[in-house]
Amino acid sequence: MLNERNPIPVVEAIKQVTKYCKKGETEYIELTEARSRVLAEDLIADHDVPSFDRSPYDGYALRSEDTTEVMKNTPKILSVVGHIGAGSVYHKKLEKNQAVRIMTGAPIPDGADAIIMLEDTTTFEESGKSFVSIRKQLQHQQNISFKGEDVKNGTALVNKGTVINPGIIALLATFGYAQVPVAKKPVIGVIATGSELLEIDQPLEPGKIRNSNAYMMIGQLQRAGAIPQYYGALTDNLEESLEKISEVMKEVDFLITTGGVSVGDFDLLPEIYQELGADVLFNKVAMRPGSVTTVAAVNDTLLFGLSGNPSACYVGFELFTRPIIDSFLAKETIGIQQEQATLAVDFSKVNPFDRFIRGRYEFKNGQLVTEPAGKDKSNMVHSLAMANCLIQLPGGTEGYKQGDKVTIHLLGE
Ligand SMILES: Nc1nc2c(c(=O)[nH]1)N[C@H]1C(S)=C(S)[C@@H](COP(=O)(O)OP(=O)(O)OC[C@H]3O[C@@H](n4cnc5c(N)ncnc54)[C@H](O)[C@@H]3O)O[C@H]1N2
Ligand code: MOO
């Protein structure tokens, strides 16, 4: 059966997976925990910001009409009748030829219609009273931060599906959101397969390797905003593996396995899918690395059978698992950010399949340029550590030349 695998194009594979998108529930969390979470409701301003007219400067609040006679060398003297800092209110009404000393952020006193900066005044005392000499003419409403000039009551604040960043946190705090409605994170099971695997704290033995994929996927899941649930590594035993996978599926929203999806004698996943009665969406994708990526569904639970080769596993996750997580979180944009970049070196390998090369991008002379991050074989891990993007090279060409425009997928931190 496995030798009959028919590769499907990458876009078709993504389409197949996204048919199974399910949206998660909403939960309320503390604002201090909200960074990087996805907002689950449209938020509307329930008051103006600022909620009162306020001073943008330290200076004096006054009536602009009292300054009409100010000339270059003839200042106007006003009597200082009060002193307010941010957080206090001047409760009387400002009368003709009066001024109130005011600090940045304090509310404009009744009767005042302009603020003069402290630097344009001189304060002095005479007979126990305070006065201010005004050296500048002011216009009606000059130097005032108006009620609602930042955000008007009733306007949209942030749309659902937005990833919350520190700027958005400032806005939510301004509107008193101590708790924030966010999309619940999907819980995604991680299982590694292969009798060759050692855990990371075990010493190397002949023929064995340390299980790096599970930890890599835990990192990828965290970066994508999901909760990884690690269930360890399975040895190549069909009954035990089937039992474990059936158990785990009941506890998670999706399950990712790594390894065991190819045509080797110990590649058990295809048989396990069969035993589970899973609907196999595809078991070969026209891409390198990760051509053996298999995705199956049992009812509405997706099983991602990612390749065992580290770089193939990584690419399979970013292309197929990531969009499902984004949809579950009801993110405004699905999938990782893509940009156009210029290839900085030749890439001569010919391939009928699309390639996703571990790459590095940077800005050079105002242009986004990219090149491979290291050796390109899918069983290699070092170039993964060096990569900050995947360079997409569509198949069916005679390789690529320096200067060619290519699509890159930005990986993030
Ligand atoms: N006759 C064929 N052989 C292979 C084919 C093929 O088409 N015909 N495809 C090759 C390609 S391409 C890939 S990719 C791999 C995929 O194999 P599996 O996904 O079944 O993975 P495994 O065989 O279990 O492992 C492959 C490789 O990766 C190492 N590995 C596995 N798990 C981990 C882990 N958790 N951490 C680190 N490394 C891991 C494993 O030891 C193997 O070296 O098949 C090719 N063969
Ligand atoms: O599917 Mo394999 O990842 O091409 O190396």
From TrEMBL:
Its EC number is 2.10.1.1. Pfam families: MoCF_biosynth, MoeA_C, MoeA_N. It comes from Gracilibacillus orientalis. PANTHER family: GEPHYRIN, MOLYBDOPTERIN BIOSYNTHESIS PROTEIN. Residues 189-327 form the MoaB/Mog domain. Its cofactor is Mg(2+). GO terms for biological process: Mo-molybdopterin cofactor biosynthetic process. Keywords: Magnesium, Metal-binding, Molybdenum, Molybdenum cofactor biosynthesis, Transferase. Belongs to the MoeA family. It catalyses: adenylyl-molybdopterin + molybdate = Mo-molybdopterin + AMP + H(+). The keyword Metal-binding applies. It comes from the Bacteria. Pathway: Cofactor biosynthesis; molybdopterin biosynthesis. One of its GO terms (cellular component) is cytosol. This is Molybdopterin molybdenumtransferase. Catalyzes the insertion of molybdate into adenylated molybdopterin with the concomitant release of AMP. The keyword DNA-binding does not apply. CDD domains: MoeA. One of its GO terms (molecular function) is molybdopterin molybdotransferase activity.
